[in-house]
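Bench notes, afternoon.
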Amino acid sequence: MAKVRLVDVAAHAGVSKSTVSQFLSGRFDYMSKETKVRVEASIAALNYVPNAIARSLKTNTTKTIGLVVRDVTGFYTSRTIRGIDDFCKSSQYNVLIYSTDFDPQKEAQALRNLSQINVDGIVIAPSGANTALIDSLIDQGLPIVQFQLEHEGNEKYIILSDYKQAAYEATDYLLKLGHQKICFVTQEFESVKSRRDRYLGYRQALEAHGVDYCDELVLSWQRERGFARSPLAMLHSELAPTAFFSQHLAITVQLLEEFNRQGVAVGEDVSLLGFDDIPMVEFFKTPITVMMQEPYDIGQEAAKLLLALVDDSTIPTKRITTPCTLVLRESCRKLN
């Protein structure tokens, strides 16, 4: 069976090839409703599939963007992906997703691959290890929007939660409940501005309440190694925290595992407040209070900004922040 061509659709609909091409590109400004109906009916009747490669060569666009994330299965990430994909679908764009498994080399390869297949732009949750490559691709004219993590503070186009304000509000809430020994549980933050902003929000809340900062109440966590010190041992130390403020869903989960293993009752023996919501939290014996981000909205904003850059490369540098919401549940108790 011969392949249906654009000229066949035009002949079937009784219009010019140019009219069919405009229809496929979504340019309906000077097209009558009757013409649109005829072209659409002819495309369906002939089962016409546009030649995407030919169109991309002609228009210098592929109607495809790349998305580079660290873990496609992550709760935050999956919801961000949905926001990006929904916005792109509504704009007739496709999304090609790369998951790097937290490997900077895989991230670099993903960026190169996407550039080589001429995607119209890239959205990325960056590791911070490929800043020079990202800057180089931007200088070559490839629009790139970053989200989730801010590393150097000079990223050209980035969408983030308001991390400092969120950490301040969470710490302020715990302090108002009477907690003065609040353990701040975090990944390494000195080289990652978005993590450092959370730390600064925590410290500013302590200062606002006249509570002395204690370095011993900052607990480091690594994805591969876990906690630098035992949270359970901390509970039996002279500086025993009455509350833990976790900065990542994976940290919150590991804290819960540690507490459950030793019979520590969250909400009774110790309070816990986490950053990021938890899947199926409604089924927990003690639902966890969280500072909830809006990953779907962040995804929508990232896609919106990227497609705007695809259309107009002269858009000034933008740093967009979205607010977080403190969701009160049963894991934080008021001290007497």
